[in-house]
């Protein structure tokens, strides 16, 4: 029998199609009127269109959210927060926009309403990563946990299929690590298995038929569950290595997760038999690591760090850096085995 602690997420979640229309009512429930809408430059049009739906409430728009939440960008956004005297932040976008929303909440304690448009899962966590002077640091604090999340599948239809594929595998990584986390619990494990099943089923269908709503809905549902997994359990080697590759080598977030996940799953498999049994059920395969590698292939993702532009030396060095402030991992870190894993991931060989 496994002892555990379970705490449910305090976030109010609205899920469906056309749910963006409930934004004004959600603002009403929070008793707020002056919203600051956030997006990246690429999604500025979406932010403007959604801002136009909240009636006569005062609004401000800041559309310069940037990957890895640089503090200079937060400083810049704070001038708009002050100028519009915002009493709520509304984030429309992926992890980068939600990161900016959290950074503003950390400084101001303003409530957040988040409309996620990718599958990264940040909306369901109390984690914030910020970059200052080229260094990314992460902290966990309830101050940044969004109050309301509105999942609207319609907002995800514009996610290009290739990005949906890697973003979805990024989400699966949260579920995989939740299944073998030191602080895992039966409720989150149920969610994790269901999340992997939903995403593995939906992602190839999105690539085959990008305009179909049903698989997009399945993927968003899986991504929500994955976000819950990330927000509820401690991450292990996979997130550590991706953090190193992103933070120290500037590697792209979702694509790096996609390359590394099959390899870390194979590395941890001998030490996490229950997690592997769960993944086998979810993926319909006796070899979950191989199934994840095949899933990455099925969505047309790049499967090597080399193709993402990393040198072999840097890949090996990244493996070594996982020993610095190492995260708990079910299988102890072994320098030789890790180097061999990084070499395979660099070359794009199947996991072993
Ligand atoms: P992202 O937010 O940077 O999005 C990538 C690009 O895709 C952006 O240009 C964005 O505007 C665009 N995009 C997003 N959704 C779209 C859509 N539906 N249609 C068209 N374009 C769309 O990337 P991401 O992978 O979502 O997030 C990555 C960032 O999130 C990283 O910085 C990562 O560290 C952070 N993150 C944080 C947490 C946390 O809990 N704090 C969790 C996961 C990820």
UniProtKB/TrEMBL annotation:
Residues annotated as domain Alcohol dehydrogenase iron-type/glycerol dehydrogenase GldA: 10-152
One Pfam family matching this protein: ADH_Fe_C
Record-level Gene Ontology MF annotations: alcohol dehydrogenase (NAD+) activity; maleylacetate reductase activity; metal ion binding
Domain Fe-containing alcohol dehydrogenase-like C-terminal: 166-346
InterPro entries tied to this protein: ADH_Fe/GldA, ADH_Fe_C, Alcohol_dehydrogenase_Fe, MAR
Similarity comment: Belongs to the iron-containing alcohol dehydrogenase family.
Protein's name in the database: Maleylacetate reductase
